[in-house]
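Dear support,

I submitted the protein below through the web form. The confirmation email said the job was done, but the results page showed an empty box. After a refresh the structure appeared. I'm attaching both so you can tell me whether what I see now is the final result or a partial one.
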Amino acid sequence: MALPHDLIELGKRVSNWGRWGLDDRRGTLNLIDAAAVQRGLAAAKQGKVFSLAMPFNEDGPQLGFIAGRVNPIRTMIQIDESMTDDKSDFTTSDDAVSMGVQAATHWDALAHVSYDGLLYNGVPSSTVTEAGSVELGIDNYGPIATRGILLDVARALGAERLDDGYAITGNDLDAAVKLANVSVLPGDVICIRTGWMHWLRIGEKMHYSYPTPGPSTQSIEWIRDHDVAGVATDTLVFENYPVDDPQAHLAVHMIHIRDIGLAQGQNWALDDLAADCANDGQYEFLLTATPIPFTHAVGGPVAPTAIK
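What the results page shows now:
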């Protein structure tokens, strides 16, 4: 089912196709220039370090709704094994992991979403094959280090967490910017906190999965106007879900990734960082968030780090 006409027109208005050349495969990450990196470095004032990654283990958020997107399964392949059968000599242990690349904390690649047969920058969706995405795989992202800004929408609206399915608007993001007392500049990555990680933390996986709050189509122009390099949320779905109009199913994904070329992250653990930001009033930080560059993959696990 095609997007409604108004959302197709919105996608055209916010499109970045051709902005960085017809061969561009990085989208909004092109906005991370030297000035953005230096802003990030300047924001690391206190030496406080926060991991924004959830645990990568079998008790992750996946419930099987997407076949094959399994939580990380780690198995031992060597246990205190000697190469010479002499334990006084070199011995080693080793393990292996099987998981969906988008099962835990991750970035979506620009190959992740298409519509009308096209991916970002007009690349045909048929270029995604059993071999993955040669054109727009996660390996095109490269290193990501810039200024991050926590937009604590839940706290800005006076809530511990947003309501089920809450649709975040541009006005909500403005309220979070006011709380943060910082200007969002091109090349920044914004981390939108809904408070939703609470449900996963207490074992309510189904509530964490559905229905979820998140950025709505009413936030898309705000994000494009601020020229952010990436947006990450503390939810499984990223956007508010479900929506009333079946034609607008996952429309934020479609316009963000396919039209804007926006790096989009899910399952980011933001609560510890948020508590510290609320305590000291500093909502900006150096963010390092380079995905594992699996060749041709349509998503990439990441262990983001915020340094204040």
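Response: this is the final, complete result; the empty box was a page-load delay. The mean pLDDT is 97.
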